[in-house]
Amino acid sequence: xxxxxxxxxxxxxxxxxxxxxxxxxxxxxxxxxxxxxxxxxxxxxxxxxxxxxxxxxxxxxxxxxxxxxxxxxxxxxxxxxxxxxxxxxxxxxxxxxxxxxxxxxxxxxxxxxxxxxxxxxxxxxxxxxxxxxxxxxxxxxxxxxxxxxxxxxxxxxxxxxxxxxxxxxxxxxxxxxxxxxxxxxxxxxxxxxxxxxxxxxxxxxxxxxxxxxxxxxxxxxxxxxxxxxxxxxxxxxxxxxxxxxxxxxxxxxxxxxxxxxxxxxxxxxxxxxxxxxxxxxxxxxxxxxxxxx
Amino acid sequence: xxxxxxxxxxxxxxxxxxxxxxxxxxxxxxxxxxxxxxxxxxxxxxxxxxxxxxxxxxxxxxxxxxxxxxxxxxxxxxxxxxxxxxxxxxxxxxxxxxxxxxxxxxxxxxxxxxxxxxxxxxxxxxxxxxxxxxxxxxxxxxxxxxxxxxxxxxxxxxxxxxxxxxxxxxxxxxxxxxxxxxxxxxxxxxxxxxxxxxxxxxxxxxxxxxxxxxxxxxxxxxxxxxxxxxxxxxxxxxxxxxxxxxxxxxxxxxxxxxxxxxxxxxxxxxxxxxxxxxxxxxxxxxxxxxxxxxxxxxxxxxxxxxxxxxxxxxxxxxxxxxxxxxxxxxxx
Lengths: 293, 332
Description:
heterodimer, A: mainly alpha, MetI-like fold, two-stranded antiparallel ribbon, B: mainly alpha, 2 domains, 72% helix
């Protein structure tokens, strides 16, 4: 970079650069306002109203926080689904993370056939869509029946306290599904593993560190940022998935006579709030661990 | 360690000979242990075996739904009812595929799906690359805020913004047309646009600035620098973003169902109303028992649904699996 000799030129250069930068991102800013900000505010307004859509237009009557109180205090299904969603997500995230990290560690070894396994593990990302998953679940293709229905598993589930039974059952019945959500995460971990400097491992090995020790002392600390990326990605994918029961419930309520757009909007915002809460929990949990090491 | 069981089974003179052979090969215990458990230089045999066993087992779990789907979809109605037939159908029966093909209205829904995924993907990729370039190459106030907003678009659930958009499209008469997907993509608000912006941001950051600066000194305009220097250098990122965008648009059903309802009918949309469509074609009262809807037909429909993606995946898999490393999506 040339160092400008006079401050006035420097200022002009900076302004020009800023303007050029804004020109490149202008399209996004317009898009953000039109397709995210305005609809978001509009949805929030709907959530405070009773909304009737007719052929001529949209009729709104202001009802205050009534839609919210209804969702939280009088709709038993919504609260139940919300809790179920939160618990399932909090349980699934560490499982998906640990699983994808293990797979990534394996694939990071010098193995032949590595490419084949990578292809297999990434396959679900390509084919997973709502209707496909729904068909596969409905036909029982996503549980290995011998495991899910074996007496040991059923006995184990029966003995668990009520709070844990739901998530445990969910894990058993949708085990393959949660593995199917690990494709991108495996790749993210793999990319980060390959970025770690080999020479650190060599130095540790010369100092007598075992592979186990190097994993805990070198690999895991180097992955602290990646962990957060993977966790956030996982939470978002699980929460935005169109077969998510809560998403389905909100969708059906949108077109329901008893529900309506106002009610569905209120539920969307409650759902959004819980989603942010989960993200915060995950972020804080991972950050504090990263800080400790 | 290895000599223990041999002691009982082998005659003593063999044992003596073995010892004398091993005596000429000092350090054999270490060698054996090295081969089995690994040394610093190479992995041990046991370790390799365990890793492969785990990978194969997990790989099987991954492929199980696909195998199940493929095999069930090839079963004839009699095979389905026969409890003896589990994994190997008695005959290859393609009747399910013929029916699913008709029920899905395959040629037209396939074309619709291609259209609905390719057109927004192209626009999304181009727009996201422009935005990513702007973020990577120019200094301007408000950039952290912009990043925060981009992250927000990734986090905000689609149901929080979909309904007002849908009503607007309806008012404008765009509901059910391609426009309802094209317009957000043009504004960088397409499906998972935030990820693509970050991919391009990382890519352009990692490219050397020298060429661009040289062109600038030679008097090239900013747009020309972008199109003639930056874009050709970032070609892998374009290909990866485009492919991922296609896959995600293809598989996205929540927004497509809301925005395209009553208009374009894509493959996943038709799959989600498979039962209804089947009964329209083959009314339950009028067909004999073998033509009734069964799980084999449904799974044949599901397989037809993912077939184009599978073909694309196996043709382009190099780009898929190497993509994340190439584009540095995780870049800190």
